[in-house]
Amino acid sequence: MRLRRKPYAKQMVREHARVVNDPQKYKGKWRSVVFRNEHPLYLELGTGKGRFLSRVCQEQPDINWIGVERIEEILLQALNKSEELLVDNLRFLWMDVKQLPDCFAAGEVDRIYLHFSDPWPKKRHTKRRLTHRSFLHQYKSVLKPGGELLLKTDNQALFQFSLDELEEAGYKLVESTHDLYASPFAAGNIPTEYEEKFTSKNMPIHYLLAQPKSS
Ligand SMILES: C[S@@+](CC[C@H](N)C(=O)[O-])C[C@H]1O[C@@H](n2cnc3c(N)ncnc32)[C@H](O)[C@@H]1O
Predict the structure, then answer these.
(1) What is the pLDDT of residues 26-59, one digit of tens each?
(2) Full domain range(s) for residue 140
(3) How much distance in Å is there from the Cα of 47 to the middle of ligand 1?
């Protein structure tokens, strides 16, 4: 994603009604204080420009949706997209995914989506991949028992890496395919910005759903 820095983006993000500033304050209280309902809590990590969330929050109004994105210029595009939506089940966090355990209590999250995460192909950048075992352990610490992690990527190497790391980090694989669109898992699939780019070039999409093994 080529990025033009915008000096005003930080302030616009901070002041946007859908952005929760100081998310640590709501650890353990997302349902009771922020959303004020008992609906399941789903996170999309590395939301990008927000196409998936702006659609799914309308199609699934009984879910509390949170998008996490660390680059303010990109988040601003997701926020702009969300402005025309007449829903109250969507919030955004401007932060790094590594802050997740500071913001969510053990078992507070029902589902996590990882959509076309940056592949970080160089070996020395392995730890930056959002499916590195250190991240997978963090996700486990906030997911409820029976919670789910869903991943889509165009990148075969990242997909294989993720399968290996999931095994290592104590997840069980529930669904998996190297060609989402040729599989039964495509039913109800909502494409992201990156996904549309890749599918328009007829590239296959790798998909998996995993759950932390009960200890
Ligand atoms: C390749 S884009 C994919 C965007 C979107 N999910 C899609 O499928 O169209 C990856 C996004 O994840 C964000 N990202 C990467 N690492 C992150 C991290 N550690 N914390 C928060 N956001 C991150 C990037 O800034 C970027 O917007």
Answers:
(1) 999 999 999 999 999 999 999 999 999 999 999 9
(2) 32-212
(3) 6
